[in-house]
Design a protein that fits this description.
The protein is mainly alpha-helical and about 150 residues long. The protein folds into two domains: about 45 residues; about 70 residues, Homeodomain-like (Arc Repressor Mutant, subunit A). It contains nine helices and no strands.
């Protein structure tokens, strides 16, 4: 009887390596990462990584990273009053012009027009309950014990 091949538990499926790169892009989108770093995370050559990433996820690694950055920029435009330039840099992009062009292609309007289509950020501002309670407390205590000076 021929020996049975046992599953090698040390072998990681190729798709798992690609997920490592995708997770890297998701977690570090604001940092200056590129295809080379993503390929290293997947432990593949850049060319092979790019081909496999596109085949598996339907878009190139560069496009995936840009999409993550633009999605985060859209969230910041909806919920903050940061300038467009600050948002551009905050999501890891360096050119406001390229950011505006890419954002317009993706969302169908400029970042400024996109922001104007939502309520102002101040409408989203929430004050934590602990802060509201702190500032809502009386400024002066009505207890005699609190106003006594220490005898020591």
């Amino acid at each position: 009887m021929a020996p049975v091949d046992r599953l090698n538990t040390n072998v990681v499926p190729p798709a798992r390596h690609l997920l490592r790169a995708k997770d890297l892009a998701d977690a570090h989108y604001a940092e200056p990462i590129g295809v080379a770093e993503m390929a290293r995370a997947a432990r593949l050559s850049q060319a092979h990584f790019s081909r496999e990433f596109k085949r598996t996820f339907g878009e190139s690694p560069h496009q995936y990273l840009l999409t993550r950055r633009l999605e985060r920029a859209a969230a910041l435009l909806r919920t903050t009053d940061w300038s467009v330039a600050d948002i551009c840099v905050g999501v890891g992009l360096s050119s406001v012009g390229s950011f505006t062009t890419s954002f317009g292609r993706t969302f169908g309007k400029s970042p400024t027009a996109y922001r104007e289509s939502f309520p102002p950020a101040s409408a989203w501002a929430r004050v934590p309950g602990c802060v509201a309670r702190f500032y809502g407390r009386p400024k002066h205590s009505t207890f005699r014990e609190d106003s006594r000076k220490d005898a020591s």
